[in-house]
Amino acid sequence: MKSTLVLDWNGTLLDDTELILQTINSIIFRFNKPSLDLATFQEKCEFPFSVLYRNLGLTENEIAIAQNDGNALFHDYYESRVGSVLPRDGVSEMLKLAKKNSMRVIVLSNHICGPIKIALRRLGIQNYITDVLAYDNRATQYGDVTKGEKLAIYIKKMGIDPSLTFIVGDTPEECSISRTLHLKSVAITGGAVSDARLRDAQPDYLIRSHFELEGIFEKNGIL
User: Could you tell me which residues are beta bridge partners of residue 187?
Assistant: First the structure.
C-alpha cells in the first residue's frame, strides 16, 4: 500500500516563523505589550492565537479586537509580506524523494487553504502535493473541525494505512494527532515551538532539517 507523508505548513514546510513573530508583535504593540523575542515566542506560542494573546496579558476585549473580522489584523499583516518567504531547508529534495517513491503528500494546516495553494504555486512545488487540508476562509478558521479531525476524515475516506503514514510538524499538536490516529510523528525544530517543548511532546523522531527524513523513511522500509 502507498505510504503517506503529512506536512504541517507554517514553520514546517514554509520557513515563516520569523514573519509570524513579526506579525504577533505588530498586533500586541497596538495594546502596549512589549515585543517578544524568538525564544520567548517559542516558549509561549499556543494555537489558536487567542490563547497566546491571553497568556501575554491581553484582555478579552483586546483579544476580540485582535480577532475581529476573521483575524484581519493577523492576516492583513502576514499575507502582505509572505510573498518573499521560502520553504525550509531540504523541502525540495524531500518532496522529490517522496514523489520518486510514490508517496502521497498532504499539507495539513490551521491556515487558510487559498493562500497555501497560492504559495505552493509561487514556490513551484504544487505538483508534489496530493491534497491541502486547511480552513476554507478566515470566518471558519478554528471554527469547524480541528486539524486532527480533518486528517482522520481524510484517512478514512482515502483508505490510508496509518502504519504507513508520517506526520511532520513544528508543534506538539502534530505529536498529539499522531497518537490519536496511530501515525508516526516527526517533530522539526526551528519553528514556532522550542526544542524542549518538542522533546516533551515525545515525537517518534526529532529532526532539525527535512534532509533527515530520508534516513527515517529508510529505517521504516519506505525507500
Answer: 169, 206
